[in-house]
Amino acid sequence: MSSNQASASAELMRQRTAPVKPTFTERTRLLLSEIWAYRLSYLFIAPFMLCFIAFILIPVLAAVGLSFTYFNAIEPPRFIGWTNFQNLISQDLTFLKYAPPNTFKFAVIVGPGGYIAAFLLAWLITQLPAATRKWFALAMYTPSLTMGIAMSIVWSPLLTGDRIGYLNSILLEIGFIDEPKLWVTDKAYLMNSMIVVTLWSSMGVGFLAMLAGILNVNQELYEAGRIDGMKSRLQEIWYITVPSMKPQMLFGAVMAIVSTFKAGAIGVELSGQNPTPQYAGHLIINHIDDYGFIRFEMGYAAAISVFLLLLMYLSNKLCWGLFGSKEDE
Fold first, then answer.
1. What is the pLDDT of residue 19?
2. Which of 200, 201, 195 is nearest to 283 (CA)?
3. For the chain, what is the radius of gyration of the CA atoms?
4. Shortest CA distance to 97 belongs to which of 256, 284, 322, 291?
5. Pick from 136, 326, 323, 141: which is nearest to 243 by CA?
6. Using H for helix, E for strand and C for coil, what is the string for the chain?
7. Is residue 263's pLDDT more than 80?
8. CA dist 160 to 153, 200, 279, Å?
């Protein structure tokens, strides 16, 4: 038998033994049968899926759609294409001059600062006796439960810009300053005040996740590390604690990014002015509120929201690259 006949015979045999690719109808029927077989599982996740679709997926899709329209909340949306985004990056001078720089400055300090502080405080609390550990954890977590108005009420007496303010009174008494400082109405101090107040309230669920992660690290790993020559707590943290709690570190990083980028009301609440004095505390969220709820330019506000969503997505991708595993990607 010639080589051509042999190859033809082998090809015919391969076609006979190759599995038949199911049609679209067969694949649909198979998928429906799988869903029906696990119908109770889908029933359990249905409440979450319905809430996710109703309060997250649909609003995001609506914002993306409205970002290409002119919509003033009275007339029907009118499609204008990329005009909103063109105005955002070329004509909105207030946005370009204040919102992104202030937001990045605020996020770079509060995000990593709060994240590192959450890890350090969680680690320090785990070194305490079990009887007192829960009370310190509660003391650190409680400020994150307060809303913006409550935080401003707590901090306003401290940051009042006259001699009666606690901070001014203390600094004047010790001779650190010669005259009262306008901590929340002067553009030179407002951003710093916002950062301090936000860091004070940043020990949220990310902090609790890190605390749980540190407590659940296998203690035998520390014993093995000491046998292998580890002589300091810093080495234990770097080589054992952090690698053993990567999921909690990832969750804490994502929560820090989300909470930082969506912050913005604290500047208005501390200063009592909207917009903040000389736009010193004007963040992207404030710009969205300005156009969405004051000027009622919903289409333009949606475009800014999409811009912020992209920033948060890129930041989360960075966190996944640092703490996520290849199986998670």
1. 56
2. 195
3. 28
4. 284
5. 323
6. CCHHHHHHHHHHHHHHHCCCCCCHHHHHHHHHHHHHHCHHHHHHHHHHHHHHHHHHHHHHHHHHHHCCEECCCCCCCEECCCHHHHHHHHCCHHHHHCHHHHHHHHHHHHHHHHHHHHHHHHHHHHCCCHHHHHHHHHHHHHHHHCCHHHHHHHHHHHHCCCCCCHHHHHHHHCCCCCCCCCCCCCHHHHHHHHHHHHHHCCCCHHHHHHHHHHHCCCHHHHHHHHHHCCCCHHHHHHHHHHHHCHHHHHHHHHHHHHHHHCCCHHHHHHHCCCCCHHHCCCCHHHHHHHHHHHCCCHHHHHHHHHHHHHHHHHHHHHHHHHHCCCCCC
7. no
8. 11, 18, 19
Structure tokens at 146: 């307060």
Closest to 95 measured CA to CA, from 288, 311, 309, 273 = 288
Residue 2 has pLDDT above 60, yes or no: no
Confidence grade of residue 53 (pLDDT, cut at 50, 70, 90) = very high
142-170 average pLDDT score: 79
- Residue 5, pLDDT > 80, answer no
Name the residue with higher pLDDT: 136 or 15.
Answer: 136
- Identify the residue whose tokens are 């401003």: 152
Instruction: Give the span between the Cα atoms of 277 and 291, in whole angstroms.
Output: 18
The whole-model pTM stands at: 0.77
